[in-house]
Amino acid sequence: MPTETRIPLELAEFLESGLAVVVGTRDGDLQPDGAAGWAVEVDEERGRLTLFLHEIAAEALLRNLKSHPEIAVNLDRPTSHRACQVKGIFLASRPALPEERELVERQVEGFRNDLSMIGFPRALTAAWQTWPCMALEIRVTQLFEQTPGPGTGGLLK
Amino acid sequence: MTPATSGSEALAIPLEILTSCFQGIIPSWLYTCSKDGIPNAAILSHVDYVDSRHVALSFQFFNKSKRNVSENPKAAVRILDPDSMKAYKLRLRFVRTETDGPTFESMRLRIEAIASYSGLKGIFKLLGADIYEVLSVSEIEYEPGVAVERREAGRLPFTMRALQEFSDRIHQAPTLDEMLDAILEKLESIFGFSHSMILLTSERPDRLELIASRGYLEGGVGSEVGFGEGIIGMVAEAQRPIRITGMMRQMLYANAVRRQVEAGGSCPEDRRIPLPGLRDPEFQLGIPLMARGELIGVLCIETENRYRFHEEDRAYLEVMGGYLAIAIQNALLRERAEETEEPGTGAPAVRSAAARTESSRKRIQVEYYPADECVLVDGEYLVRGLPAKILRKLLHEHATMGSVEFTNRRLRLDKSLALPEVKDNLESRLILLRRRLEERCPEIRIVPSGRGRFRLELLGEVALEERGS
Lengths: 157, 469
Known about the structure:
The complex is a heterodimer. Chain A is 26% helix and 36% strand. Chain A has helices at residues 9-15, 55-67, 101-117, 122-125, and strands at residues 20-26, 32-37, 39-42, 48-54, 70-76, 83-95, 133-145. In chain A, a hairpin with a 5-residue loop joins strand 1 and strand 2. Chain A starts with 8 loop residues before the first helix and ends in a 12-residue tail after the last strand. Chain B has helices at residues 63-71, 102-117, 160-171, 176-191, 230-238, 311-337, 353-358, 386-401, 408-413, 426-440, and strands spanning 28-33, 39-44, 47-51, 54-59, 74-80, 87-98, 128-139, 195-201, 207-214, 224-226, 242-245, 283-291, 294-303, 363-369, 374-377, 380-384, 405-407, 444-450, 453-458, 461-466. By secondary structure, chain B is an alpha+beta fold. Chain A binds chain B through residues 20, 22-26, 29-36, 54, 56-57, 68, 70-74, 76, 78-79, 83, 85, 87, 118-120, 123-129, 144, 146, 148-150, 152-153, and chain B through 26-27, 29, 31-33, 35, 37-43, 60-64, 72, 74-76, 78, 82, 84-85, 87, 89, 91, 123-124, 140-146, 249-250, 280, 282.
C-alpha cells in the first residue's frame, strides 16, 4: 500500500494557482480513461488534495474509481509548461459545496487568464461547464516532475 | 456522449472532419495505464492524422506513457478543436513505433525546427512516431465548445488558379532583382501572406543568406541561417516543406541565428544581422526552392493568423517551390547570357561628376577583415563573404583608378574573388550587397546600368582599410 506523500508548500501553491487539470483513471480491463478537472485544493497537512470536476465528468470517472481507486492528476501551466503529476488513491467523493464554488471559479479564471495570454480569447472558453462539480478526495502517494525535458517523469521528493 | 463505433466499422465521427484538432495548435491529453493498474495522464504536443483509422502521437519525453503502452496498448486521448474548443475523446490501441517513413519524418522536422529555435537541438527531439488504431471517437459532453462558423478563409489559399496567376505575374519581372520583390509582393496580394522572406544558398557550404523580405521593420538582407537551424535551416537540410502551427509562441526568432565568437584579428563578434521575423508567429511555413534536384534557397512565410493546413496543400507548395526555384535560376542564367561587354574593357572609367560633388559631404570608414572576409562600415557590420570581397574590390579600384563603371563579366574574371567556374551566384550576391548597402549605408550605391553592368556611386568620402591581415 503506497504511503502518503507530503506536497512541498511551494508546489501546493502552484497546484492551486489555476492550471490545466488532467485526470486519469482506469477500469478493470486496464482501459485508461480521463477527464478535465477544474480545480484542486491541498489540505493543511499537504498529504491529501480535493479535486473538483464537473459532475458529468465525475460520473464516468467514479465508475472506475470506486473499484479501482488509483488516480493520476497532471497539472500544467500552459504559458510556462511547468507541470507536475500527482499519483494518488481515491478516498471519497461528494457534491461540491456552494461555498467551494468561489475556489473553483477563481482557479478556472486563472487558467483562462493563462490561455488568453497565449492566444485563446475568453470567448472560446465561455462554454466551459464548470459547475456543478463533484469533489473527490485523494490521498497523495507520489509526485512526479512533468515539465517537458529530460527530467520528465522524475520523482519529486 | 455521442459514442462512435469501433472495430472494423467506420467511425461515427470520422477523423477527417477533425482535421483542425490535428494541427498541433492546442496540446492533447494522453491517458495510459501500466500493467499494474496505475493510470497516467500526460500532455503531448501533437496528435497527427495518419489515415481514417490511425493517428500518430509524438514520442519525445513521455517515458511513463511509453512504458505503459509497451506493456498495455490501451490508451485514450483527448483532442480539442482550436476554433471552437469543442473536445473529443479517442479510444486508442497502440500498434507500433515508427522511426522512419513519411509520418515520422513529418513530425521530426517540425519538432527539430522548434528545438533549434529554442536552443534544445538534440534534447527536444522525436524518438518515434507512435501509431495508434482509433477504436472510437466521442464528443465530450461537458466541453461542448462554442458555436463557430466554419470559415474557408482559415484555409491556405492554394488553388491552381491562384498559382497560375502567381506564376504569370512573376514571369513578367524583367530582372532577378525585380523578380524577388515580385514574388513576395504577389504572395501578399494573391495569397494574403504579408510577412515573407527568401533566402538563397551562398558560396559558403550549408548556409543560406536572406536576399529579400517583405513586411518587416528590419529588412534583414544578408542575415544568415545555417542548415538545420530553425524552420528555414531544417527545410534546407531536409529539402522538404515544413509548417509549424501554434507551438512557436514562446520561441524567439532571435535564437534562430546564433552568434559566434570570433577571436583575434578576425571580424569582431556580434557581427551578424538578425533574421527578421514576427515576435509571435502563429503559423510558419518553409518551402524549399529546388531546381533540377538542387536546393537554391528557401521561401519562408509566417502569419499571426491560424491557418488550417490540409494534406493536399502540400502538393501545391511543392509545385510553388519548384516553380520559384526554376524562375530564379532561369533569371540568373538569362542575366548572365545577356551580359554586355563593357565599353573599353579594362580601361578605368572616369569618376562621375555627381560622385565628385557629393564626396565632400561625409567621411565613411570602411574596414575589410580578410581573415573572415567581413566588411564593417563606421564600425557596424555590413556584410561578409563574396559580397564583402566584391565591395572591397569596387572601393579599391575606385580609390586607385577612379573606376565607377563595372561589369559582372569583369568581376568573374577577377581571380581575387575566387568565383567558381559554374554556378557562381554572382548576380544574387550583387543584389544582396546592393540591398544591404541601401539598408545600412546609403552613401555607397550600386546602381544597375544595363544587363550585367552597374555603376558605383559614392555620396561621401570613403576610406577603405584592411584589418587584421
